[in-house]
Amino acid sequence: MNDDSLVTRDVEKAINWPLGDYIFNCDWDIMANTTKARQYGFESFEGSEYMFLRILTEMAEAQMIPPLWALSLKMIMKENPAHA
To answer: What would the pLDDT profile of 50-82 be if each residue is shown by its tens digit?
Structure first.
């Protein structure tokens, strides 16, 4: 696949620059607690590896990035139906 087949997207709309600046330039460890969110009904959970693969697959299908030939989200979902 050559770069001409990728769709040009407005990167500024897809990236939260201030959050990235904060997280990657902190001089201290960032600790997060999700207990209060779960107490108020936010019970769903998605593993980090699954989430990244899902997002990258969606981006590849939208032609924002080249296709992911090495890993297939569908294969992972078949192997672990709990994430489906």
So the answer is: 888 888 888 888 888 878 774 565 666 666 666
Rounded to an integer, what is the distance from CA 33 to the centroid of its chain? 20
Both tokens of residue 33? 């607690």
* 3-state secondary structure at position 24: helix
Cα–Cα distance for residue pair 68/54, rounded to 1 Å: 11
How crowded is the C-beta side of 69, counted as CA atoms within 13 Å? Answer: 2
Distance (Å) of CA 70 to CA 28, 64, 67, 73, 76: 36, 17, 9, 10, 12
Domain ranges of the chain: 3-83
